[in-house]
Amino acid sequence: MAGFNKVVQSYDEAMAGLQDGMTVIAGGFGLCGIPEGLIAQIKKMGTRDLTVVSNNCGVDGFGLGVLLEDRQIKKMVASYVGENALFEKQLLSGELEVELTPQGTLAEKIRAGGAGIPAFFTATGYGTPVADGKETREINGRNYVLEPSITGDFAIVRAWKADRYGNLVFRHTAMNFNPMVATAGKITVVEVEEIVEPGELEPSQIHTPGIYVQRVIQASFEKRIERRMVRQGEGA
C-alpha cells in the first residue's frame, strides 16, 4: 500500500495493528452488510478484551457472534440482542458488559463521532434507564439527554464497490450503518465486492469519500439471511 492506493492484498495486512483492549465499530444491520471476512480475521487473530460497537452482535456462529465464542468481546454497545442465544446468555450471566442504546441514538452517536461532535442532546430515553448517570436539560419546554459520541480505534465496513483511493459505493439495504461507521474509526478498513480504477465511479454516486478510508480489501461474501421467511404459493 503506497500513496493514495488504499488496496491491501491480505486480511493480515487489513487488520494489522489491532490489539487487545481496543474499540472496534462494525457496520451492518442484522446480517445485512456485515464485514464477514474482517470479523473472521479478528476471530483468527484471537484479539481479546475488545469493546465492539454495532447495531447487534450477529447470530450464533456467524458475524460478530463468532467473537463471543472465545470471549473476545469484553463490552458490547448495541441496540438489541437479536437472534443470538450466546449473546443473551453472556448478558444475563454478567460475563459480558452490554450497553443497550436506542437504535437511532446509536446511529447518531457514531455519526457525531465521525463529524468531530463530542456529544449531543436527544429526547430519546429521557425518564428511562437509558438516561441514568447522564446530564439532562430542559430546552424549550422539553427534556433531553446528553449523549456522548462514539469513535473507535478500528472501523470495519462492508461496501459494494471501491476505487483504489478508497471512495465507496454502498448498495441497497447493505448501506445501513456502514457509511457512518466508515467515518468514525482512527483506522477504517473496508471489504468490497469489486475494486475499480479511480475515475470509474460516478462522483455523484460516491457515498463515502476515500479521505475516511485507510485500507480496502476485495472479498467474496456468503450473504447469509438472518431469518428466511417464505409463504406457500396457491395450490401448494
UniProtKB/TrEMBL annotation:
The keyword Nucleotide-binding does not apply. One of its GO terms (molecular function) is CoA-transferase activity. InterPro entries: 3-oxoacid_CoA-transf_A, CoA_trans_fam_I, CoA_transf_BS, NagB/RpiA_transferase-like. Keywords: Transferase. Belongs to the 3-oxoacid CoA-transferase subunit A family. NCBIfam families: pcaI_scoA_fam. This is CoA transferase subunit A. It comes from Rheinheimera riviphila.
